[in-house]
Amino acid sequence: MSTQQISIAHPEPVRFWRRPFRVVRENMRVYLILNAAAYGLALLGFAIGIIFPDLVAARAAGLEEDGTGELVRWLVNTPPLFALTTLGVNLFRLSALTIVLPSLIVPFAGLAFFGYWSLTTGITLVPTSDTGWVALIPHSLTFLIELQAYVLFLLGAFLIGKYWLFPRTAGAKNRRQGYVRGLRQLGLLALPALVLLIIGAVWEAYSLRYLVHPLAQLLL
Fold first, then answer.
1. CA angle at residue 175 from 114 to 180, to 5 degrees?
2. DSSP-derived secondary structure letter, 67
3. Rounded CA separation 167/207 (Å)
4. How far apart are CA 47 and CA 127, in angstroms?
5. Of 29, 94, 97, 186, which one is least surrounded by beta carbons within 10 A?
6. Separation between Cα atoms, residue 217 and residue 116, nearest integer Å
């Protein structure tokens, strides 16, 4: 057997860092639908907030009552701590508790919970002052980055549900095997999602600290 034939019979394995992107390519249609739903619901919430400013005021009041607003104002002057806090919230409260954990118990449940979060967050993002509109310029990039990370977790949650209920779609013999294979896919997707969450947290912390004030002076 020739060397060429051997190379064809035994293709080089996909490098580990490429595997998450292969998962996305193999599920591109679902990935695009999840993107459209996530960003679409956020934009819908933003539009609702503009049309009904009382909802924005109610959300802002709620953030002040639970101490979130005061915490953000305190953290903004310390970007490393702000970035670390943001990463913790986005990784554990939103990614793990909102998307992943419910989907491990009830198929696709995390998708519904995240849909509600995306809609209400769109309402929260509506600025209530001129400075707030300026701050939205760098913060829009933060939201784009972080939402993309959540979409990767959503895809993983979807695959768990799909392989769990329909194990043959994963080449599994039973639902237990399908569930495990869905977990493996989620684990792969979590790697680039974590990178995006880190980038988003760092950008948010440093952009709010060092970009908003110069932009406000320039534009207002």
1. 65
2. T
3. 45
4. 12
5. 29
6. 36
- Name the CA radius of gyration of the chain, rounded: 21
In angstroms, the CA 62 to CA 66 distance is 6
pLDDT by residue (tens digit) across 60-105? 787 777 777 777 788 888 999 999 999 999 999 999 999 999 999 9
Integer Cα distance of 178 and 155 in angstroms: 15
Tokens read off for 108? 């696709």
H helices of the chain, where? 3-9, 19-26, 28-51, 53-65, 68-75, 79-88, 101-105, 109-124, 130-165, 175-210, 212-219
Q: What pTM does this model have?
A: 0.89
- What is the tens place of the pLDDT at every residue in 192-212? 999 999 999 999 999 999 999
Distance CA 76, CA 80 (A): 9
Kindly give, in sequence order, each residue whose CB lies less than 8 Å from that of residue 89, ignoring residues fewer than 6 positions away: none
Residue 127, number of CB atoms within 10 A of its CB: 15
